[in-house]
Inverse folding.
């Protein structure tokens, strides 16, 4: 990234960066991103746009051009004419593989040399989790390539090659809890051995985003490592359980009809809840984007209505088998009986936001029975604590995937803050 060399910085590289949830948290905590590596073209474009935002925020504080881009008044190409090349080239859109890794190293080395960066302090990231997820394994019998043979099982070896090359003080490896039991524990055992082999002491703990002040139950495996012989350790994270309700993330957003969208405009910050303002999910000048929702056929609308009514009647969960036959379309009535689920608006946390949002919205029904629809892209982003200024590139399907796969930035920021205290001590 464009580095102000007059200011002391702590630097990081983000591997398998996705849409940048981990990166956003580390940037908010004062870290400088050297590079983001991401193979998906749309997620990489999102990372580029966010890098441009951070540049504009630092060097053109009014962010006028960024807001014009969000409103659609100027094209992305026109906006990027005002962004230095060295900002955009921090995003490396390439697959992590043995064939590509030397070229990736060469690009990162070039960035560090041009920006005068002498040291990589931290490496963050985690390989795609589908190969380790319990749901993914349950579905593997229907796949052409079984999960046990999925090449993504070996992507952790790319991670360890980065550790060996750049010798950061610490690293953060994030993944689903299913990593510990994948391939009967072989994946996790091999990962630990590889991490130790390249010179790191490691500790693995399961963390829940709700304990970091996120209004979402999202359990993830967080492995933190530090170079042997150093004084670092796994941080002790003080639990921050917010008293805010999930509705506090949704209440100030405009009401939407099914299949509707709210074109980019400025929502008065004063309408936002205390939680949204305190966590800087919305700031005064933000332009609201991505408040767009899929259409729903009448049958699904009726199911949504029944699902919301059941939740409002003592927090009952409607099971698929409870539906009248006229509303059922699936022959399999035993698996995924809870396929219709309301976002728990009147609770202090909701269930895990997933990339499955891209397939349908049945598992993420808006709690407002008057709207009776699945959640919008922006509402999903808010549940994940992405700031309203975060612009996701690609179509709606791609945006849902990017958001569902991300680490909540608030969680990432609190991890980053604890690591920075150790590194700068």
């Amino acid at each position: 990234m464009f580095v102000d060399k007059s200011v002391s910085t702590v630097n990081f590289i983000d591997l398998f960066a996705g849409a940048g949830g981990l990166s956003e948290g580390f940037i908010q905590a004062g870290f400088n991103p050297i590079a983001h590596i991401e193979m998906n073209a749309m997620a990489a474009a999102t990372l580029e746009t966010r890098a441009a935002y951070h540049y504009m925020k630092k060097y053109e504080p009014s962010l006028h051009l960024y807001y014009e881009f969000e409103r659609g008044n100027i094209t992305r190409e026109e906006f990027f004419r005002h962004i230095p090349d060295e900002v955009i080239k921090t995003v490396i859109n390439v697959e992590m593989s043995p064939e590509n890794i030397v070229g990736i190293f060469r690009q990162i080395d070039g960035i560090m040399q041009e920006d005068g960066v002498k040291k990589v302090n931290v490496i963050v990231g985690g390989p795609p989790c589908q190969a380790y997820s319990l749901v993914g394994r349950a579905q593997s019998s229907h796949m052409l390539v079984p999960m046990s043979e999925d090449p993504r099982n070996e992507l952790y070896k790319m991670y360890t090659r980065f550790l060996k090359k750049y010798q950061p003080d610490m690293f953060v490896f994030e993944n689903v809890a299913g990593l510990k039991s994948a391939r009967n524990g072989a994946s996790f055992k091999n990962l630990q051995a590889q991490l130790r082999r390249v010179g790191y002491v490691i500790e693995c703990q399961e963390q829940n985003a709700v304990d970091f002040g996120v209004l979402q139950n999202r359990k993830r495996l967080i492995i933190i490592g530090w170079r042997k012989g150093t004084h670092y350790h796994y941080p002790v994270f003080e639990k921050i359980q917010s008293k805010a309700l999930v509705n506090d993330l949704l209440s100030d957003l405009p009401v939407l009809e099914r299949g509707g969208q709210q074109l980019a405009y400025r929502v008065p910050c004063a309408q936002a809840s205390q939680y949204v303002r305190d966590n800087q999910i919305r700031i005064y000048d933000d332009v609201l984007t991505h408040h767009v929702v899929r259409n729903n056929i009448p049958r699904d609308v009726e199911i949504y209505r029944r699902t919301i009514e059941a939740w409002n009647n003592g927090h009952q969960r409607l099971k698929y088998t409870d539906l009248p036959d006229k509303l059922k379309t699936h022959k399999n009535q035993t698996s995924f009986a809870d396929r219709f689920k309301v976002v728990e608006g009147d609770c202090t946390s909701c269930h895990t936001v997933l990339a499955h949002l891209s397939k349908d919205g049945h598992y993420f029904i808006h709690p407002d029975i008057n709207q009776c629809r699945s959640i919008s892209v922006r509402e999903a982003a808010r549940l994940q604590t992405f700031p309203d200024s975060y612009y996701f590139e690609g179509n709606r399907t791609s945006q849902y995937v990017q958001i569902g796969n991300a680490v909540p930035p608030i969680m990432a920021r609190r991890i980053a803050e604890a690591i920075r205290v150790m590194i700068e001590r």
